[in-house]
Write a structure and sequence with these properties.
Elements (H helix, E strand, L loop, with lengths): L4 H7 L1 H9 L10 H27 L11
Helix pairs in contact: 2-3
Amino acid sequence: MKLPLLLEYLVGEARIKKIMQADEDVGKIAQAVPVLVSKALELFLQDLCDNTYEITLQRGAKTMSALHL
């Protein structure tokens, strides 16, 4: 599955693998793990944005801010 371009740039599989390997306790990383972490992060960010958008609408604001998180 291909990530959206912005998300691929920000949290690509290679970057996730590099972050995971920065921990000394992490040994070998299966090839599927960065893909799964990437997808989980994508879903988390989508849910966060959706909820933030709903709160922004409920408060009648025209611009999202950190207070809406």
